[in-house]
């Protein structure tokens, strides 16, 4: 990892597009982060969205939603005279952070939000002609990621829900 000149931490509903020397950090559960990296220009972006579709779209995209994040990515690419297909794209998150679903819910309603977020990411990226080079999605747990915009590398630390629960019990003094 190259030394960061600038460190940015983003949370759910935030978006960042920057240049070489920037490291972007975030923590994911059921949310999704998509990273875009342009290998020649050493620029890139990352989003951290919580839901697949904006129920009340406006002229100003809200990075809390997948469909609006795609608008932000396309706008950032256009403002830098690039195309989304020129970027290496990676997708992270979409965990199932719940363990129980009521049995009386319709099948589509029982689908975990992490799964819905993952599906939205791939559908939107493929529709836009993006070059998806890797993904680390699904399972049950949390991901801490660091995106180096200078190299396009993304470091992922994955922790299962079981290990996270054990950590919390340990911190509280319970076994």
Structure notes:
The protein is of the alpha+beta class and 175 residues long. The protein is built from 4 helices and 9 strands. It has a 5-stranded mixed β-sheet, with helices on one face. Strands 1-3-8-9 form a 4-stranded mixed β-sheet. Strand 4 (32-38) and strand 5 (43-49) form a beta hairpin. The mean pLDDT is 91.
Helix content: 25-40%
Give a count of the beta strands, DSSP E runs of length 2 or more: 9
Overall pLDDT = 91
The number of helical segments is 4
- Inertia-based shape: globular
Q: Give me the Rg, rounded.
A: 17 Å
Q: Which residue ranges are poorly predicted, with pLDDT under 50 across at least 5 consecutive positions?
A: none
Strand order of the largest sheet: 2-5-4-6-7
- What is the H/E order? EEEEEHEHHEEEH
Secondary-structure-based class equals alpha+beta
The first-to-last residue Cα distance is 37 Å
Describe the sheet with the most strands: 5 strands, mixed
Q: In what range is the share of β-strand residues?
A: 25-35%
């Amino acid at each position: 990892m190259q030394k960061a000149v600038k460190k940015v931490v983003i949370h759910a509903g935030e978006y960042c597009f920057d240049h070489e020397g920037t490291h972007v950090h975030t923590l994911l559960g059921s949310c999704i982060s998509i990273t875009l990296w342009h290998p020649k220009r050493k620029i890139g972006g990352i989003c951290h969205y919580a839901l697949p579709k904006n129920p009340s779209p406006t002229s100003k995209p809200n990075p809390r939603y997948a469909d609006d994040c795609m608008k932000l990515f396309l706008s950032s690419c256009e403002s830098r005279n690039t195309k989304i297909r020129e970027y290496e794209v990676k997708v992270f998150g979409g965990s199932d952070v719940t363990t129980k679903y009521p049995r009386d819910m319709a099948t589509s309603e029982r689908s975990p939000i992490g799964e819905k977020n993952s599906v939205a990411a791939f559908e939107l990226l493929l529709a836009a002609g993006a070059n998806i080079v890797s993904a680390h999605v699904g399972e049950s747990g949390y991901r801490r990621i660091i995106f180096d915009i200078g190299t396009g590398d993304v470091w992922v630390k994955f922790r299962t829900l079981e290990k996270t629960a054990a950590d919390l019990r340990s911190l509280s003094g319970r076994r």
